[in-house]
Amino acid sequence: MQFKHPELLYALFLLLIPIIVHLFQLRKFQKEAFTNVAFLKEATLQTRKSSQIKKWLILCTRLLLLAAIVFAFAQPFTSKSDTFKTKKETVIYLDNSFSLQAKGSQGALLKRAVQDIISNVPESENISLITNDDTYKNTSIKTIKNDLLQLGYSSNKLTAEAALLKSITMFSKQKSTLKNVVFISDFQQDASPFNPRIDSLTNLHLVKLQPINTNNMTIDSVYIAKRTASAIELKVLIKNSGNPIENLPVSLFSNDNLIAKTSVAIENNAETTFYLPVNEVINGKISINDVNLQFDNSLFFNIDNRSKVNVLAINATNDAFLKRIYTDLEFNYTATLENQLDYNMLDQQHLIILNELDVIPNALTAALKQFTKQGGTLIIIPSKKINKQSYNQLLANYGSNFNHLLSVEKRITTINYAHPLYSNGVFEKQVSNFQYPKVKSFYSVSSNSATALQFEDSKAFLYQKNNAYIFTAALNSGNSNFVNSPLIVPTLYNIGKQSLKTPKLYYIIGQENTFDVDTQLQQDDILSLVNDDINMIPRQQYFNNKVVINTTKTPSIANIYTIKNKNESIKNISYNYNRNESNLTYRNLSPSKNITVSDSITEIFNTLKSDTKVNALWKWFVIFALALLIIEMGILKYFK
Question: What's the CA angle centered on 367, arms 362 and 370, to 5 degrees?
Answer without folding.
Answer: 130
